[in-house]
Specification:
elongated, 436 residues, two-stranded antiparallel sheet, 14-stranded antiparallel beta barrel, mainly beta
Length: 436
């Protein structure tokens, strides 16, 4: 029996190593975006959610359990128990339908989503390491217009394309100072590249104007967390969570290149502009509330604010390429969600399945030609299915689906359907088998 147990345990460890390798090698292939809105700012901002709370639409600031990783609030790491080693990784895919002035088109994207680990190093002290996207850029479209010049009708075609994004690799610590207060911090290495192009030309001239933008980041990010876990009854707890992330310069020098080509004489002229220390991330803060009843029920709500309105951003206009104020605005995110387990004491699988649901609302963090960008409404459902093995069923297969609607007056409307699949591998790696 001991031989069988050790065999199964070693097999699970090998599976985890393979999962880690797969996630690491795909870390640079983000789940991506196909949205034209990702051309603004630093792209579409990624929710910092993982398997368990994706089904609850990203709620997590007041969530605290010892069998899951919760990077949204590093103070939660202190809940880990002494025998647990958690690996949590996931992939996602999405289909987005675009509509503007009666025209419709769709696009698909998908790939790596996140990978995290969590383990205990001392009593009431947990450590987490993980990688997840910070922002995504991905779009490719053209605009066509016509201008009457005398008796001729001039066709003007402008192409817009961009790709890339920023990633974050974090190391976090959570410590329970005294019962019921825990604090934590995530220190992240923020890196990545964004490349964007604008190509313009007309049917009347052989000249083509290219404008290229490049942003490259290699910096850091800090996120501080706090949780106050208050007992209401023997098996009922109310958790108040709070987070704070200081804004700072990324010490990046964004570049703009103007390239004029002439197809008739095979000639091009290039003019380059650079802004020293031209990118920053904003100060952000959040508060959340979570309620849990034993292992059967938990509900929560989060409010987050990102102060992008105080951040200057590069822009090229008639005055040249320089930092401009008023291009970005403060972003607000509100989420609420719940998780329900029918019967934790049941011997049937269905009694241990975690049913999840959530809704959310978010405002944009940028302006488009002086107009506020699209607001976002979202809703999600999900399931956490226990995976039985030879000696426990602590590991969870997390499946979630999310619907996101983004729209603004007289602008493009987006409807996105997103599927996320993740595995929370949660095993007692440090337990010793006792022979009787």
């Amino acid at each position: 029996m001991d031989f069988l147990r050790n065999k199964v345990q070693n097999m699970n460890k090998k599976l985890v190593c393979l999962l880690m390798l797969a996630m690491t090698t795909t870390a640079y292939s983000q789940s991506g975006s196909r949205s034209p809105y990702s051309q603004f700012g630093v792209g579409d901002l990624s929710a910092q959610s993982v398997g368990f709370n994706k089904g609850m639409n990203g709620v997590g600031l007041g969530m605290r359990k010892g069998n899951e990783v919760n990077p949204l609030n590093p103070a939660s790491y202190s809940a880990i128990d002494s025998l647990t080693m958690i690996f949590d990784g996931g992939l996602s895919g999405q289909i987005t339908n675009f509509e503007e002035q009666g025209k419709k088109v769709s696009a698909k994207s998908g790939g790596f989503d996140y990978f995290t680990t969590l383990f205990r190093v001392y009593k009431h002290l947990g450590v987490s390491v993980g990688v997840m996207p910070y922002s995504n850029v991905g779009y490719d479209y053209t605009e066509t217009s016509y201008e009457q010049l005398g008796t001729d009708k001039i066709k003007e075609v402008t192409g817009y394309s961009g790709n890339g994004g920023f990633n974050q690799l974090y190391v976090g610590v959570g410590w329970q100072i005294v019962k019921p207060l825990s604090v934590g911090v995530n220190l992240s290495y923020l890196w990545g590249d964004i490349h964007q192009e604008i190509e313009g030309g007309t049917s009347a001239y052989s000249n083509t104007l290219f404008r290229e933008y490049e942003m490259s980041v290699s910096s850091y990010k800090l996120d501080f967390g706090l949780q106050l876990n208050l007992p209401l009854a023997k098996r009922d707890f109310l958790t108040l969570g709070a987070t704070f992330s200081p804004g700072h310069s990324l010490h990046s020098d964004p570049v703009c290149r103007m390239i004029m080509t002439n197809s008739s004489i095979t000639k091009s002229d290039t003019t380059s502009f650079k802004i020293n220390n031209g990118l920053s991330i904003p100060t952000s803060f959040g508060v959340g509330l979570g309620y849990s009843h034993a292992s059967k029920l938990r509900v929560g709500a989060d409010f987050q604010m990102q102060k992008w309105g105080s951040v200057s951003f590069p822009r090229f206009d008639e005055d040249g390429y320089a930092l401009k104020d008023g291009l970005l605005k403060d972003r607000m995110v509100v989420n609420a969600g719940a998780e329900f387990m029918p019967n934790p004491n049941s011997r049937k699988l269905l009694g241990h399945v975690r049913f999840r649901a959530g809704v959310g609302y978010a405002t944009p963090y940028y302006y488009i030609n002086g107009q506020e960008g699209p607001k976002e409404l979202s809703a999600s459902i999900g399931f956490g299915i226990p995976i039985a093995n030879a000696y426990n069923n602590r590991s969870i297969l997390n499946i979630s689906g999310q619907y996101v609607h983004r729209s603004a007056d007289n602008l493009l409307t987006e409807n996105t359907f997103r599927l996320c699949i993740g595995l929370t591998f949660n095993e007692r790696w440090f337990a010793k088998w006792k022979i009787e």
